[in-house]
Write a structure and sequence with these properties.
- By secondary structure, this protein is of the alpha/beta class.
- It has one domain (5-332): 3-Layer(aba) Sandwich (Rossmann fold).
- It is built from nine helices and 15 strands.
- It has helices at residues 6-13, 23-44, 46-51, 74-80, 114-128, 150-159, 174-184, 193-200, 231-241; strands at 92-99, 108-113, 137-141, 164-167, 188-191, 215-218, 245-249, 259-261, 268-270, 275-280, 294-300, 311-317, 319-320, 332-333, 352-353.
- It has a seven-stranded mixed sheet with strand order 4-3-5-6-7-8-9, sandwiched between helices. Strands 2-1-15 form a three-stranded antiparallel sheet.
- Strand 1 (92-99) and strand 2 (108-113) form a beta hairpin.
- Helix 5 (114-128) crosses helix 6 (150-159) and helix 8 runs parallel beside helix 9.
- The radius of gyration is 20 Å and the shape is globular.
- The two termini are 38 Å apart.
- Residues 342-354 have low confidence and may be disordered.
Amino acid sequence: MQKTPLENWIAYRMGLSTGNFTESDMREYQLERLRETIEYVAEKSPFYRGLLRGFSATDLRTLDDLEQFPFTTPQDIRDKGPQFPCVSQSEIERVVTLMVPDAAEQPRRLHFTRQDLELTVDFFHHGMSALVETGQKVLILLPGPRPDSVGNLLARGLSRMGVKGIVHGLVEDPLKAVHAILQSEIEFLVGLPGQVLSIAKHHAAKDIPSAQMKGLLVAPDACLRSPYVPDAIIEELQRTWDCPVFCHYGTTEMGFGGGVECRACSGYHVREADLYFEIIDPNSARTVPQGELGEITFTTLTRRGMPLVRYRTGHFGRFLKEPCPCGTVLPRMERMHACPDYKLSRNGTHDTAR
């Protein structure tokens, strides 16, 4: 089985040798980037200048020390969004608005520089290289007409490995999507699980040759409280096209991409060079031992426009103790869980994206 190419990419990004890359080396890199991020936001971001008053990057002697730092929540971004960016508006390339069902509430706005977006393209390039091959055609069933949309960024990442990414957009008409698959001889689909399933269940899908589809990547809507893919959907897609179904996990706050499965289909390998993840008990706010389920929290390590420190996603998962069957030293985050019956001491988990 092919080892995830993310291992060599992450080692390269960290300035480490790919031949003897270890998790210990990776954690040392992350600790240094965390210190730099804390120092950067405390100086450049009005919001974090206030939130981190009394805290210092020098307080981070080990990764465990991060637990003493305050959290950032979606409500913080709603209430004080303009105070987050660390650069001038002239340096912001893309602003993404995350809407909320309640019209009385403020939406969340995330700001990205050109450098921030380039890191996402780079992740899409290397993450997808384990799943598709040069010369293949991928139909991207995600928002794409707008420059620097997630579909546009993915297509750019695919082009770097000689794969043609065709941005179809969200599926409004499954029949139209089937026609696009047939007309362009599509071999791989990327989209929201329910929308990909709507294509598979359409009567016209039987016209797609059984050997044509080589794989599917389902990316659940991370704006949902429980952005997981039910096993029933994965099994139905596998039955329909007799091909592997891979899962992706990411949020706009992460920079669209967070982690993606390798050929083993047994958990996400995450963007260790760009994001530091913690799994916390949502009630005590303490970090849980590896292997235990909790709320996913992350800190950006390389973000320039709008870094986030200990951002609480409201999503639930865990890091697995067992190594990945692909042979990588990278940790694995288990496929996303349905949200347990916790009483969360935070707001902002029922948003919809635009």
